[in-house]
Structure formats: structure tokens, C-alpha cells
Amino acid sequence: GSDAAEPVIPFAQPGSLTRVYAVASGKGGVGKSSVTVNLAAALAKRGLSVGVVDADIYGHSVPRMLGVEDKPTQVDNMIMPPQAYGVKVISIGMFTPGNTPVVWRGPMLHRALQQFLADVWWGDLDVLLMDLPPGTGDVAISVAQLVPNAEILVVTTPQLAAAEVAERAGAIATQTHQQVVGVVENMSWLELPDGSRMEVFGSGGGEAVSDALTRTLGARVPLLGQIPLDTRLREAGDAGAPIVLAEPESAAAQALEKIADGL
Ligand code: ADP
Questions:
Q1: Are the beta carbons of 41 and 217 closer than 8 angstroms?
Q2: Superfamily of domain covering 16-261
Q3: How far apart are CA 57 and CA 143, in angstroms?
Q4: ipTM of the predicted assembly exceeds 0.95
Q5: For ligand 1, what atom is nearest to the CA of residue 229?
Q6: 27 marked as part of a ligand binding site
Q7: Closest protein CA for atom 26 of ligand 1
Q8: pTM, whole model, 2 decimals?
């Protein structure tokens, strides 16, 4: 048999003090990565030691949203992650040449994730956020195997059709025996100049996912917050400065701060 020892993942060891959150969504484009980077920045602002693993093979937008252009470096046998705003970042996109799309097969993804968790010099993290690809794919299963104590954070829009898909992404926790820490509803409304709210994507999705997962898992899965649509949130992401830092007074930033408090 093989005598190669399995790489040690510090976050998965008994007694690890790092809270690990796997940020999941049913569909793409609901704001999962935006929520991930803003929570990371909000937690780092509080003085916590924070890392982000961008495991979204389709999107890998985390480095851009945090303004990270540096590549990881290698020191001895460890990978040193680049940092921004006090957040250490590793992305699957940092290991693919240019913008070339790479077809990652399940086992390759698993090995890549394992390396991100075991061979990156994270130091003593208080919080590790993992931005998962949308849906209930190989990566979610790999995370559950590699870091069984990772808690799932589900991001959805208010749209009920989207909420049903998001619920499936959360319900995977029954099979993997993970905790679901809560639900975030994003793009909840657009505030109009007269102060009224336009519900662009309908309403009730976050509450629906929270209720359904609470029933399925037999444990309270709270709706941690609702984030309004805000052009500045997108602009801040495009500019590599999360809105919680760039526009901390905005309603969207305040909602994200409240969600960070609930973690
Ligand atoms: P996902 O990770 O779910 O694919 P992203 O975080 O990449 O989603 O968001 C998709 C797009 O929507 C991005 O351009 C992002 O800037 C934008 N976006 C996300 N949330 C909001 C929001 N609350 N208001 C305005 N734009 C948003």
C-alpha cells in the first residue's frame, strides 16, 4: 500500500480554533462571491485574522473583488498567499495560466482544495471563508470531506424559484452532517429616490430557504440578513475595494456588517 501520509489540514484537527464557513448558492450570479469578500473584509476590520479560499472554479472572482493582483509565492514547502485589507487569499484562478479556461475534473479539484488547505501558510486564522462554486457539486462534497467542521452559509436572492435551488445547496448538509450557520438574502430590493423599495427580484426567498432548511435539518437556520441592490456594491467589487470598506455608511454595507456580527 501507499505510505504517503495524507496532508494535514490544520482547520480540520480536533481543537482547531478556526471557524470555517463554506459559502454556497444554488445558482451563479446571486452575489455569493460579493458576500464572501465583504464578510471577509468586515471580519478583518474587527481585528480578526481572516483567510479566503476561492474555490469557485467557474467564477474565481475573489482576487479581483479584493484587488489582489499578486500571485502566491513559495517558501520552503509552503505556499504564501497574497493579502489585501488584512485578508489572505488563495484562488484556483491563481494557478491557471492567464484567462485560459481549465477543465477541472473532480479528483483534480479535490487535490487542489486539499493543497489550498494543507500547504498554504495561513497562520493562526480566526475565520476561513470558502467561496464554493454554485450548486451541489464535487467541491461541496470535497469540502465536507476535507473540513467536516465547515459550516455552510447559503446565499440566495428573494426570488422563490432561486430559493428552491438554494435550499438544495443547503440541504446537502444532511448528507454531509455539516451545520448550516444561516441564510443571506442578496439583491433584496432597490431603494428608489423617493425612499420606497422596489422588489426587483420579488420577495420572500431568504425566509423561504431559512424555513425550509430549519425543517429539513431539524435545527434553526436563521435568515442572517437582507442586502439591498446597490450600484456601489458592484462598483466597489469591480474596483477591488469591498463596499464595507469603500462605502461603510451605505445600507448594503450596514447589512453586511450585521451579517458578520451574526457569524
Ligand atoms: P456569484 O458569486 O453568486 O456568481 P457575484 O458576487 O459575482 O455572484 O455577483 C454577480 C454580479 O452581481 C457582480 O457583478 C456583483 O458586483 C453584482 N452584485 C452582487 N450583489 C449585488 C448587490 N447587492 N447590488 C448590486 N450588485 C450586486
A1: no
A2: P-loop containing nucleotide triphosphate hydrolases (3.40.50.300)
A3: 14
A4: yes
A5: 24
A6: yes
A7: 234
A8: 0.95
